Amino acid sequence: MSAPSRRLSPVARRVWLLQQVLFWGALTIAGIVVTITAGVGPWFLIPLVVGIAAGIGVPRLRWARWRWDIGDEGIDIQHGTVAIRRTLVPWIRVQHVDTRRGIFEQVFSLSTVVVHTAAGSHTIPLLPAQQADELRTRIAGLARTEDAEPAVEDEQVDVET
Questions:
Q1: CA gap 139, 74 in Å, rounded
Q2: First CA to last CA across the chain, in angstroms?
Q3: Which is nearest to 15 in space by CA: 84, 110, 137, 83?
């Protein structure tokens, strides 16, 4: 089975960069506060340096490795930053599907598709909002048709009283 071919929106890199900046910025500020109040060495330099490296590398690496596709067997998802994880969600396991829009997603007009199974949920994040809505509808239709079986009519049984 070949690797999935579809990518997330290129704007996903900006969202992940913003998340990295906020996280490492908060740690840097905490390091500055510790340095000033405790009078210890410049501990804020550690999160500052790591944050710069993470801000440069993590969004690019995540976007380069994130792939998804819709196939005959189900939804094929590949993702990871350091370790790559690949998941195939069979159509028969899909219970329902929805879209979600967090704060950053709303700012950048993106949505996340969430596929729910009995074992949990799987996401395809940071897609353009219209594409996410179309994907949600397509997955719901494919899951419904995959699960559909011919209707069996109940036989009428005459009961004598």
A1: 9
A2: 61
A3: 110
Give pLDDT tens digits for 28-53. 998 888 888 888 888 788 888 999 99
Architecture of domain 12-147: Roll (2.30)
Output the CA–CA distances (angstroms, integers) from residue 3 to 16, 57, 76, 86, in the order listed.
23, 23, 8, 9
Residue 68 phi, psi dihedral angles, 5° rounding: -155, 160
Q: What is the pLDDT of residues 79-98, one digit of tens each?
A: 999 999 999 999 999 999 99
DSSP state of 2: P
pTM above 0.85, yes or no: no
Nearest alpha carbon to residue 22 among 92, 102, 139: 102
Domain residue limits, the chain: 12-147
* Contact (Cβ atoms closer than 8 angstroms) between residue 115 and residue 142: no
Token pair of 48, please? 């500052």
Amino acid residing at 104: F
The answer to whether residue 148 scores a pLDDT higher than 80 is no
CA distance 47 to 113: 32
